[in-house]
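Researcher: Sequence recovery benchmark, item below. Answer with residues only.
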């Protein structure tokens, strides 16, 4: 999960309360799903909602810039980095610091590898190699949720280059619409095919997720010229929110995901975007606006708390879960107020070259630390020798007692259905 899609403003586009409210719905679904609250078994669809919103906003920023004739590829990338990187850098640095004191060497080594991939926006490729998102060992990965940031950043890298090239060859909206339609259809077919044959690839790879972004972008290209009555807009909002609720309630980790089922939350999100009811009591209320504005930081911090509860075997305790939910909101607020807003204002006030230098200077220490932790095998010297000896015994198995599970690991399609 941003991402610019979580940000309270979107570059050249005006602030929309309905979009901010959609962010709130999405992050609430994801967070409550990960904490295991009943009734939110399909809350993972919140990520798909974010992808649709992101495509809508990014196509809008690029398209309007091209129409005005002032679109800059450099400024586009820098704007995304200003919004995404500061809070992500802080999260990675904090986890590496906490892990120094509490994680065993192999666990710390894995965290170092994941932190490095996360900061380079390639964690989705790493997690694809390791296992499925719904696997039982998912809670051992403190930055698992960063896969969505990696997919989104990869989309950010490619979309402006593509649309800029199309615009120079065939100026006008018609060519942009055609490109969106063709790529959307190709990506959706890839998604459906991979969901049946190789589910982890369908889940983690950009080529099988791109259609969700492109659907949002296609809506933007059409929505500007549409004039809908208040009654139709109300009906669209109700249809959209109902689709989202049905996806959250009736889907679960056993569903073949994403596949064609992802159409349900995506169409729901598109309907709410098309309705554009900024004064809606469902997306425009004060709670939704507060959550939406802080949704990026809330998303960043919630998963380490989920993983922490699982690590301490407290994820089944309602009291601990409620405490962690409160901590998620608190950390989200602190990250928003102390990192997101100051960094955004400070970097925006710098000349572009100095903003890039500041971001590189900030990201270098955690990247270097993560690589060092990885290369030193989790730096076992930081712990007493007895602790390392205990961990070493975990791999000390009698080869004559190898089980069927170790001889023949389950196929990915099975692994994806083993979350609970």
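Model:
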């Amino acid at each position: 999960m941003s991402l610019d899609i979580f940000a309270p403003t979107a570059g050249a586009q005006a602030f929309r309360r309905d979009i901010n409210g959609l962010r709130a719905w999405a992050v609430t679904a994801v967070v409550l799903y990960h904490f295991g609250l009943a009734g939110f078994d399909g809350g993972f669809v919140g990520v798909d909602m974010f992808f649709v919103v992101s495509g809508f906003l990014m196509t809008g920023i690029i398209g309007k810039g091209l129409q005005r004739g002032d679109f800059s590829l450099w400024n586009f990338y820098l704007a995304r980095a200003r919004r995404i990187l500061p809070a992500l850098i802080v999260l990675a640095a904090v986890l590496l610091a906490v892990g120094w004191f509490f994680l065993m060497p192999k666990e710390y080594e894995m965290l170092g590898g994941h932190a490095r991939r996360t900061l380079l926006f390639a964690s989705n490729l790493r997690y694809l190699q390791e296992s499925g998102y719904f696997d039982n060992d998912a809670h051992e990965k403190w930055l698992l949720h960063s896969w969505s940031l990696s997919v989104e950043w990869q989309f950010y890298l490619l979309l402006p280059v593509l649309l800029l090239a199309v615009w120079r060859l065939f100026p006008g909206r018609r060519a942009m619409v055609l490109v969106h339609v063709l790529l959307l259809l190709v990506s959706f077919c890839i998604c459906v095919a991979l969901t049946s044959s190789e589910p982890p690839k369908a889940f983690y790879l950009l080529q099988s997720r791109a259609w969700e972004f492109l659907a949002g972008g296609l809506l933007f290209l059409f929505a500007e010229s549409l004039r809908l009555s208040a009654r139709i807009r109300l009906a669209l909002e109700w249809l959209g929110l109902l689709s989202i609720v049905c996806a959250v309630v009736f889907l679960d980790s056993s569903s073949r995901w994403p596949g064609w089922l992802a159409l349900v939350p995506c169409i729901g999100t598109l309907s709410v975007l098309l309705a554009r009811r900024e004064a809606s009591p469902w997306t425009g209320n004060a709670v939704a606006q507060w959550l939406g504005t802080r949704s990026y930081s809330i998303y960043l911090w919630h998963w380490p708390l989920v993983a922490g509860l699982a690590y301490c075997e407290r994820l089944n305790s309602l009291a601990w879960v409620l405490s962690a939910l409160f901590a998620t909101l608190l950390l989200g607020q602190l990250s928003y107020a102390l990192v997101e807003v100051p960094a955004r204002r400070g970097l925006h006030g710098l000349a572009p070259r100095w903003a890039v230098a500041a971001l590189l200077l900030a990201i270098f220490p955690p990247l270097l630390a993560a690589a060092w932790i990885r290369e030193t095998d989790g730096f076992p010297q930081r712990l007493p020798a007895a602790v390392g000896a205990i961990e070493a015994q975990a791999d000390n198995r009698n080869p004559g007692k190898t089980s069927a599970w170790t001889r023949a690991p389950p196929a990915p399609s099975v692994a994806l259905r083993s979350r609970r």
